[in-house]
Amino acid sequence: MKIHEKYILRCIQVAKNGLGFTFPNPMVGSVIVHENKVIGEGFTSPYGGPHAEVNAINSVKNKALLSKATLYVTLEPCSHFGKTPPCANLIIEHKIPKVVIGLLDPHVKVAGDGIKKLKDAGCEVLVSVLEKECRDHHKRFLAYHEQKRPFIILKWAETLDGFIAPEQALRETDPSPYWITNLQSRQLVHKWRSEEQAILVGTNTILKDNPKLDVRLWTGKSPTRILIDRNLKVGNDFHVMDGSVKTIVFTQIEHSKKYVTGVDYEVIDFSKNIAQQICEVLYKHNTLSVIIEGGSKTLQTFLDENLWDEARVFKGANYFTKGLKAPIINKAIVGKRTITTDTLTFFNND
Q1: Exposure on the CB side of residue 298, measured as CA atoms within 13 A
Q2: Quick one: which of 252, 149, 230 has its CA closest to 197?
Q3: Which residues are registered as beta bridge partners of 73?
Q4: What EC number(s) is this enzyme filed under (predicted)?
Q5: Coil, strand or helix: which one is 120?
Q6: Any residues with CB less than 8 A from the CB of 274 and at least 6 apart, and which?
Q7: Are 334 and 347 in contact (CB under 8 A)?
Q8: Which is it for strands 98-103 and 124-127: parallel, antiparallel or unpaired?
Q9: pLDDT confidence of residue 1
């Protein structure tokens, strides 16, 4: 492996420590090397805190070595003042002579300016090292800035006979939860929730299951809750309306007197392109990623409008015989794993 690729891979590893905490900033990783020895590492702090390059530089014990070191970073150093000063300025201030970058920053306030600033100051800059791997790592940030929408993950669980939920008559007889997957799979889903900025479900999912949409089976930050509730059927006695985390409701009702205090309401036209309108609104809410967990109609809406990036489908070890059929996905399988009694299959929308 080439030496630059080795350290960019390490940057990606380090960056993952920020997964779920940096939104709406990207989770960047940075490594500083002097004479083939790592002397500093850093990843992006929670939003408003120092960026990866700053944390890496601050972690170097002997700052005199910086003037003879190489800084590696997954994404182009920022060149503008935001919540924090420009990272490019700090690199220049410490006279770091060489910077190796995995990926250009598509943000309109950066987009090459960081590299220009470094070069103008006399830095040697190498760009696009392991660009493919860095693009995959920064997929949420890139979807937001290049496609002007969140990175969208579809997730559902289905029985061996292809049902996502039992028939309504069975629910009326026994309203207790009908788990398709085992506890290990459900814990994994909570881990995923902690990694994404938002979670989205439809009205029927709330009315039938009254989910909390939190990360109680994992540690981390619960995502923003997004609910599609066309006619405002979900009252303030449901878990999603408890105000514990930011909540956005998409509706066609414009009468604010019907709204629950503390919840954000967005009015859309349900007669056309629902998924597209939701994406446009979430972009304005600075939402970089969303995991869509149901129900079947909501999932199918995003599939039909071809607005999704990944799908993660569990198949449990049970049967419903009758019920609500699972969505249909016509893409090649890109990965599969077994979680005790469950099978998890991955799809990409390339």
Answers
A1: 26
A2: 149
A3: 30, 101
A4: 3.5.4.26, 1.1.1.193
A5: helix
A6: 228, 250, 268, 301, 305
A7: yes
A8: parallel
A9: 62
What does DSSP assign to residue 199? E
Q: Are strands 29-34 and 124-127 parallel, antiparallel or unpaired?
A: unpaired
Please report the beta strands in 229-340, taking only residues with DSSP state E, as ranges in sequence order.
247-251, 264-267, 289-292, 310-315, 323-325, 333-339
- Residue 243 tokens read as 């105000």
Question: What span, in angstroms and rounded, lies between the C-alpha atoms of 314 and 186?
Answer: 10
Catalytic residue at 53? yes
- DSSP conformation class of 241: G
Helix (H) or strand (E) holding 3: helix 3-15
| Active-site residue (options: 5, 35, 53, 172) | 53
- Say how far apart CA 234 and CA 226 lie, in whole Å: 12
289-292/198-202 β-pairing? parallel
The per-residue pLDDT for range 184-237, each reduced to its tens digit, is 999 999 999 999 999 999 999 999 889 999 999 999 999 999 999 999 999 999
3-state helix, strand, coil in the chain (%, to 5): 30, 25, 45
Residue among 274, 276, 190, 261 nearest 228 (CA): 274
Under 8 Å between Cβ of 267 and 254:
yes
| Amino acid identity, position 184 | Q
How far apart are the C-alpha atoms of 93 and 80, rounded to whole Å? Answer: 15
Q: Would you state the pLDDT for residue 94?
A: 96
The three-point CA angle 226-150-89 to 5° equals 125
In tens, the pLDDT along 282-334 reads: 999 999 999 999 899 999 999 999 999 999 999 999 999 899 999 999 999 99
Sheet hosting strand 289-292, strand order edge to edge: 264-267, 247-251, 224-228, 198-202, 289-292, 151-158, 310-315, 342-348, 333-339
| Tokens 């419903």 sit on residue | 320
In degrees and rounded to multiples of 5, residue 103 shows phi and psi of: -150, 140
| DSSP run (H or E) holding 127 | strand 124-127
Any idea how long the chain is?
A: 350
What is the rounded CA–CA span in Å between residue 11 and residue 5?
10
Distance (Å) of CA 276 to CA 199, 227, 246, 288, 306: 16, 15, 21, 15, 9
Residue with tokens 């995995």: 102
